[in-house]
Specification:
This protein is α+β, with helices and mostly antiparallel strands. The chain is 26% helix and 24% strand. It has 23 helices and 44 strands. A hairpin with a 4-residue loop joins strand 27 (537-538) and strand 28. The two termini are 54 Å apart.
């Protein structure tokens, strides 16, 4: 019900809920009386168009490899079957320098499979007007289908959508089955028959199973042995293997792609809402073991944690209440009475002086969070004991200005209800439920829910579907709780993995694996690995050897390269009164003392001290006052400005950075007032490392035999790091691309440039590459007076399916930039670095030579076997010390090696460069070039060409602004002259100070590490 008067048809008492009149004539309760009724001339077994009418016509269809790659770790060449040039760098050799060790991997080898033919079938269901996979799944798992297929003599598998497989062929290559969903059904989870609800008003459906292909498993073995190249038949073999492995756990557990969750498993609240639940991750992958007598296939098993909607056994208004209570600190003590009040519309006066009613902040929050949530209702069973639960999807919370100040409540939403005894009467939803269902609504002032099928329900009669994923971005407290829940020490994680193998996957007891002769070991692989030698870390006055501890300190050490120019013009700004001016002055004194002890050149010992209260203006006024006051009192343009802020509000931080980066082109350093009060020496040294990098220096470098030469490069070399960060799911904000370029011969300092490539664009085109790289290369040449001969290009964030696009687009355009600037193209080595995988190392218990005290792998642990590809040049490297939980190695994949660098020096260079990260006294997990590009891409979000105030909504306190929701930021006509096009966002603001005499100032900003 969406309106008053006669907007609704009759029949309110017998439908699932309430529905708009255009669809009401044949509701979900109607049934067909004969198999052919309503099917028209094509006949009962007509296969339909195969087109989803609800699908976005502009959305690209996924390729077969992309579909299979959602569940299986496919090799890169699987995604380039149409490209004859899609061959990547082969493995030249294995590492021979590191210390030999053994580690366990969460890899379980496939030990064998029967060499037999598998018969693949297409499956069709009709009628299925919306091409619903859920309907196909229901038909396939129906008792009628199961009994019919059992007579064929083979074991059947299905993807519950379009494909099926059998161990035996059908007699006539096809079978047709009539399934009546109004008859007895069968639930494989409970193993009990039950009554299925009608579907789309048609209880009878027709299932067609037609043989299309014969899959020869021997073909897969030939590929793994290197006898043939990848083709579509190898993909079909992998697809079958995957479904055979996942069929049984998908029935006994709740599957989400590669993850499986026990419906009875323990759920843990994340800062009260939502809930987190642990599950088991499982994915098939290819293995290097084929080269040493193995089958070349293995199963990667890990733990996983996902957020779910809570309270499946309680009405939805409780979930709505918790959404609000955990979103805003001012709402944390709300009751349902408060919720009922604050979701009501707000009264505003428009520019013409008319009174209008608009959605309240609480209503907008719920409308955003609850859209697409699946739910069930239970009141229908009171009328029909055989009526079982049906799942609905929320389309929206009902809102219309015509309902006035109370909104679309159960009291205000009415419909015309027909009566067999007389004329129709106007009735409210509240009265209808009382008269027909005998239900007195307790919270009639809460907004109504509208489903995707056009039904309307009061919130208190709806129950969130069990194990429904919570897909929204978690807040800071929720994220912290999720990390705490998800991480676990290696021993605990290993035990959880083995429990998952035994209880969830249960390969020995899987009837499908038995039928098809597939066997999987229940023991983790023990892999022969290497422990690379750690480097010595060089400072200006000494060098240290951290050994396998992966830690050192800064006591008594001078930064290898101090600030480029003496520090003469700088300031501290006390913002918002988070601490006293005396605290700020004391901290500044300690900072000068510490920074000078680390080798800094400081000519002005006492900075300018400025106080700014939020009632003096906005952040633009703050930064202007800070910059102009510092310039005036110091007599020259500021080199860096410190801001002492009272909280960790991200909006405040972004506004300061936006003004200082883009308007004043001056490095800035934000300090939390709590740390300023404490003045801990380690914190001050950490700040000094960041400030030194922003002022043109660097902390340390790898100590080689000749301090004037790089221990790794034999020719003029640059390292390029590239990363693209994307907005959260459902967001319209643009993606951010950041490119970093090493500026010195040791690859210790990296300049960075940023731009937006569009919305959710991962692979960059030539225009973006030229804009990011060209001016940085000019700065590099100006400093070194020689063109680079070698380029190491490290790329983060791309999947195997995008490797070829990186070569065809990004590398091609990068080479074009070099050619245009230097009239020659250097040699390239292209490396993909990713941490988005589930491979983990577990040193053998008690083996102190391969694990630390927490049984995490030591820094420098290198794995080249078992988890890697049989032919490609890839390896896993754990270069860091895990702070908490289980260490996650980085997967490096070399897809181009024109330089021809051998395995040993390449792996040594990547590992030892992790000790040169500018703001840490430990090696980092990822090569610094990629790490820095990730930092820069995140900072670039504050450089969007959009009013900073447009990201803030009314109601925040001074110094504590509240963030608008995404669609409010990008759709407000007051800030956009034309509708915002997320696919063509405006370019980012340049980092340029337009004041006279700032040219040198701007150039320095372009080459310094402003983003750390």
């Amino acid at each position: 019900m969406s309106g008053s008067g006669s907007r609704h048809g009759s029949g309110m008492g017998s439908g699932h809920g309430s529905r708009v009149p255009s669809q009401y004539g044949r509701g979900p309760g109607s049934q067909v009386n004969s198999p052919g009724k309503g099917l028209g001339k094509p006949g009962a077994f007509h296969r339909g168009t195969g087109v989803d009418p609800a699908r976005d016509p502009d959305r690209k269809e996924l390729t077969p490899a992309q579909l299979v790659g959602r569940r299986v770790d496919l090799p890169a060449e699987a995604y380039g079957m149409d490209n004859e040039d899609s061959r990547f760098e082969p493995r030249p050799d294995y590492n021979s320098e590191g210390k030999k060790i053994q580690v366990q991997l969460n890899i379980f080898p496939v030990t064998g499979w029967r060499d037999q033919d598998i018969y693949q079938y297409d499956i069709f269901v009709t009628p299925n007007p919306h091409n619903s996979p859920a309907l196909v799944k229901k038909i396939w798992r129906h008792e009628t289908t199961r009994l019919s297929l059992s007579k064929t003599g083979g074991r059947w598998l299905s993807d519950d959508n379009k494909l099926a497989w059998s161990s035996k062929p059908l007699q006539h290559n096809e079978v047709r089955i009539t399934v009546d969903l109004d008859g007895a059904g069968y639930d494989p989870r409970t193993r009990k028959a039950h009554i299925e609800p009608p579907t789309g008003g048609r209880g009878v459906h027709y299932l067609i199973i037609s043989q299309t292909k014969k899959i020869r498993l021997a073909y897969l073995k030939h590929y793994l042995d290197g006898k043939i190249s990848w083709d579509s038949h190898v993909l079909e073999c992998m697809n079958f293997f995957d479904h055979c492995l996942r069929q049984q756990p998908s029935i006994t557990h709740y599957p989400i792609r590669r993850n499986y969750y026990d419906p009875r498993g323990q759920k843990v609240p994340l800062a009260k809402f939502p809930w987190a639940m642990k599950g088991v991750y499982s994915a098939m992958r290819m293995s290097e073991s084929i080269l040493r007598g193995g089958t070349g296939l293995a199963i990667n098993v890990d733990t996983c944690t996902t957020a779910f909607w809570p309270f499946p056994d309680q009405p939805m208004e409780k979930s709505a209440l918790w959404v609000c209570m955990t979103h805003n600190p001012d709402w944390e003590n709300w009751s349902l009475n408060n919720l009922s009040r604050w979701v009501q519309p707000e009264e505003v006066t428009d520019k013409d002086g008319r009174i209008r009613y608009v959605q309240s902040p609480a209503f907008r929050l719920l409308a955003d969070k609850m859209a697409k949530v699946k739910f069930t209702v239970t009141h229908r069973g009171k009328k029909n004991p055989h009526d079982v639960q049906r799942t609905y999807i929320i389309k929206r919370l009902v809102f219309d200005e015509k309902y006035g100040e109370e909104g679309a409540t159960a009291d205000n939403v009415t419909f015309e209800k027909k009566s067999d005894k007389g004329p129709s009467v106007t009735m409210s939803v509240r009265q209808h439920y009382l008269d027909y269902w005998g239900i007195r609504l307790n919270w009639p002032l809460l907004p109504m829910l509208e489903t995707t099928k056009g039904y309307y329900f009061p919130m208190e009669l709806c129950y969130v579907e069990d194990l429904h994923r919570y897909k929204h971005k978690l807040g800071p407290a929720q994220t912290s709780a999720m990390i705490k829940e998800a991480v676990g020490r290696p021993a605990k994680r290993k035990a959880d993995i083995m429990d998952g193998v035994k209880d969830v996957l249960n390969w020995p007891g899987d009837p499908n694996l038995k039928e098809f002769g597939i066997s999987v070991s229940q023991n983790m692989v023990i892999s022969n690995a290497r422990l690379l030698q750690n480097p010595e870390v060089g400072f200006r006055n000494q060098k240290i050897n951290p050994g396998v501890s992966g830690r050192w300190d800064l006591i008594g050490k001078k930064f290898y390269s101090p600030n480029e120019k003496p520090l003469r013009s700088w300031a501290f700004v006390n913002v918002g009164g988070g601490c006293s001016d005396a605290d700020v002055e004391s901290f500044a004194y300690q900072f000068v003392k510490s920074y000078r002890a680390h080798g800094a050149i400081i000519e002005r010992n006492q900075p300018i001290f400025i106080t700014f209260n939020y009632n003096e203006g906005n952040h633009g006024d703050l930064c202007q006052k800070a910059w102009e006051t510092t310039e005036k009192r110091c007599g020259e343009k500021p080199q860096i400005i410190f801001f002492v802020i009272p909280n960790k509000n991200q909006l405040n931080y972004n506004r300061i950075k936006k003004n200082m980066d883009c308007r004043w082109a001056t490095p800035s350093q934000c300090l939390h007032s709590l740390h300023v009060k404490q003045k801990k020496p380690q914190y001050i040294s950490n700040v000094a490392m960041k400030v030194n990098s922003k002022l043109g220096g660097f902390t340390s470098m790898i100590a080689g035999p000749d301090p004037q030469k790089s221990p790794f490069f034999i020719a003029p070399t640059v390292i390029i790091g590239l990363d693209v960060s994307h907005p959260g799911a459902g967001s319209s904000s643009p993606s951010m691309a950041a490119l970093t370029l090493s500026m010195d011969k040791w690859a210790c300092r990296y300049a960075a440039s940023c731009e937006t490539p569009g919305h959710r664009i991962e692979v960059l085109d030539g225009t973006v590459i030229r804009g990011l790289l060209g001016h940085l290369l000019q700065k590099w040449y100006k400093k070194h007076r020689v063109a680079p001969k070698h380029v190491y290009f490290l790329r983060d964030g791309v999947s195997e399916g995008q490797f070829q696009a990186v070569l065809d687009n990004e590398i091609k355009e990068t080479k074009r930039v070099f050619r245009e600037l230097f009239q020659h193209v250097p040699q390239f080595t292209v490396i993909i670095a990713t941490k988005r995988h589930h491979i983990r190392f577990f040193p053998k218990p008690g083996d102190k030579a391969s694990g630390d005290r927490n049984n995490n792998p030591l820094p420098g642990t290198l794995v080249e076997r078992d988890a890697t590809h049989p032919k490609h040049f890839d390896f896993y490297l754990c270069s860091h010390v895990a702070i908490q939980g289980t260490a996650r190695p980085v997967h490096y994949q070399v897809i181009l090696n024109e330089i021809g660098i051998p395995v040993n020096p390449l792996q040594k260079m990547i590992y030892q460069h992790c000790y040169q990260y500018c703001r840490s006294t430990t090696p980092v997990s990822l090569h610094p070039a990629v790490y820095y590009s990730h930092l820069a891409s995140n900072r670039a979000r504050s450089h969007e060409m959009i009013h900073s105030s447009q990201k803030e909504k009314e109601g925040g306190k001074p110094g504590f602004p509240l963030a608008k929701r995404d669609h409010e930021v990008y759709s407000d006509p007051d800030y956009h002259e034309k509708p915002y096009d997320k696919n063509n966002p405006p370019p980012l603001l340049p980092m340029q100070n337009e004041n006279p005499g700032c040219e040198e100032h701007n150039q320095f900003m372009e080459t310094t590490m402003w983003y750390v």
